[in-house]
Amino acid sequence: MNEENIVEIKDLRKSFDKGKVTALNGIDLEIKKGEFVSITGPSGSGKSTLLNMIGALDRSDEGFINVAGYDLTLKNDLSEFRSREIGFIFQLHNLIPNLSVLENVEIPLFERNLSGKEMRERALKLLEYMGLSDKVNRKPTELSGGERQRVAIARALANEPSIILADEPTGSLDSKNGQLILEHLKELHEKEKVTLIMVTHDMNVASLANRTIEVLDGRIKT
Amino acid sequence: MSFISLIVKNPFRNKTRSILAVIGIAIGIATIVALGIVTDGLKSSTEDTLKAGGSDFTVMESNISDMLFSSIDEGYVDKIMETDGVEDAVGVLTAVQPIGDNPYFIIIGIDPAKLYLSEMEITSGSAFSSEDAKELIMGKIAAENLNKTVGDSLTLNNTDYKIVGIYQTGNLQQDGGVFMSLDNAQEIQGEEGKVTMIYVKIEKDANVEQITQSIEDKYGNDLTTVASLEDLQSVDQGLSVIDTASWAISLLAIVIGGVGVINTMIMSVYERTREIGVLKAVGWKNRRILSMILGESVVLTLFAGVVGIVMGVVAIQVILAMGMSGIIEPVYSLDVFLRGFLVALIVGLVGGFYPAYRASNLPPTEALRYE
Hints:
Chain A is an alpha/beta fold. Chain A has helices at 47-54, 79-85, 101-106, 116-129, 145-157, 175-192, 203-206; strands spanning 5-16, 21-32, 36-40, 62-67, 70-71, 86-89, 163-167, 195-199, 211-216, 219-220.
């Protein structure tokens, strides 16, 4: 594996429904450390499946996939990989409603053997970074859509991941809040040098990335 | 936030469902606790009866299903007295007669000369004087319940007996009844020449096991010896039946409570499928998710355990207040409360395991797609 690459994928294949539905049909892809890559394509093209494969949320049927030095085709328990290397941002914030903003950001830190004080300090720092210091004790239902997504970004950053995977992060936001989230992600990429891989169907959003990959019928369009 | 505080918070997200589940389990626990309190009281009272007058063991009829059904020839009292190592023996006839609202009013017939063996305290009046006198002494609880005092009379089997004294032994069964001469009790019951049991006191350095064995060897066809509550349970099916019923109800509470917990926790897991997907996405291991759901289940049932124990104690107090204080002698032992908690814990673990296992094995992508 090339040391500059954080993601290396060769001939990756994945199908669902006992092979009746082909989601990925021989994907070859390399992503360098610190890159901001957007993945576009029509609905059902396989872009979210590809993102899930990179984040080890799903397993491939065939092919090779190595992310941050982890061979994802070999390891059985990939929870440690997800905990150490990946930060997910979903279209819907997916925050836990009965927990405060601060507690939601602490959730990923349970697997890191930190003390309660360390968890709290790290979560507070991230919420300050996301401009939510005054909302730490609020419940997610008391926040606007944009604020909730900023909490979700803080949660994704909690474990200091090497890769952020964002699946339509502005999909459920109005244009103003969507723009704000994109600015946060762009700043994150530029300041923290984190690798950012974002799935979107919006070409304007995709254009913010250093590189855009288009997926069509389970393959990367060249 | 600690993992424990997360586990404690989660079960009460849907308050109505959780409270209903808690009530369902708590009723089972309350039944176990209330039954345990009554059963322990009965055992304690029975044990007191067995050891009445500081006797070392009791002799009763062999092959009976309940100690109250025991009936042995009075002549055995002298035979037991002749056994090596026996210091004293007294035959008593124990029977029940319906008095007022109480269908189980206890009558104890005893030789007036041996009344001292009952270690009772005469709080007013005096003991009955002879075998023939139509006299009795009444327990303090019975006197309170029947509103009787020294000088009043009590009609038993169409005969008036004068109350010559009020006594207290500390034993609910005895204090809720009367003592009278053995002859009078035999006459009332139509059991002339019969006693229910023989209390035996042994000499200071004598060995109880040797003496009971000697009696069993000699009179084993007619008599059996009971030196402890455990001995009694092997001959008295009444206590065994109560014990078995108590455990059967506990088992039933576990099954019913367990099904309720499975239902509650499965609903909770269904509702939180996406959330579980997120927890997996942020790196939670399967065993942490399993621990969380199992922990939530145990928190729910232990809370139900506390509620159930309080409900059980309150139920006993209500029953006592309804006029059963002369019949039930509650014993609030730690053992009963621990049994309630143990059942709650088992229900939590058994009922929570399947939902927890299911949640921990959810594929992350499926969980995240769940609507």
